[in-house]
């Protein structure tokens, strides 16, 4: 399935437009007090590529402390992405009243038995407190493990509608 190859973390690091991050943040804030989740898709190469934020319903039985993609909507995203020649660049979710860290549960879900399910995909975690994004981090798979760096919210906090 080409959609699951991933757009690569390097593309996300250097070229993700602030408007895309703003859409992601708005979805995660709207999901509060539950964890929100979704993916960011990319089509094309270089500066001419385009990005799409796809919110997904949180199917976790404990949505305040965990997220899970429901199989049917996730499959539909993958099929649509294939048809549009897009790849998954990023999986994102929020933590409710908790730090924006890629938790041990997040790591276990992304790399069961230490094997990354989507090694070329970045993971963004956004801390939502009182319905508002307060911090964020990005994790990428590197040499057998995830490396996490903070993302400054000021870089994608916009008050105008997108």
Question: What does this entry look like structurally?
Answer:
With 162 residues, the protein is of the alpha+beta class. The protein contains four helices and six strands; from the N terminus they run H-H-E-E-H-E-H-E-E-E. A hairpin with a 2-residue loop joins strand 5 and strand 6. It starts with 8 loop residues before the first helix and ends in an 11-residue tail after the last strand. The C terminus is likely disordered. This is JAB domain-containing protein. InterPro entries: JAB_dom_prok (IPR028090), VirAsm_ModProt (IPR051929).
Question: Key features?
Answer:
162 residues; alpha+beta; Cytidine Deaminase, domain 2; 6-stranded mixed β-sheet; 4 helices; 25% helix; 31% strand; globular; disordered C terminus; metalloprotease; protease; VirAsm_ModProt; JAB_dom_prok
Mean pLDDT: 86
**Helix/strand/pairing class, anyone?**
alpha+beta
CATH topology: Cytidine Deaminase, domain 2
Major β-sheet strand ordering = 2-1-3-4-5-6
User: In percent terms, what proportion of residues is strand?
Assistant: 25-35%
Helix content: 25-40%
Instruction: Spell out the CATH superfamily.
Output: Cytidine Deaminase, domain 2
Order of helices and strands: HHEEHEHEEE
How many strands, which pairing sense, and closed or not: the largest β-sheet?
A: 6 strands, mixed
Number of strands: 6
Q: Helix tally?
A: 4
Please tell me the CATH architecture by its name. 3-Layer(aba) Sandwich
End-to-end gap: 31 Å
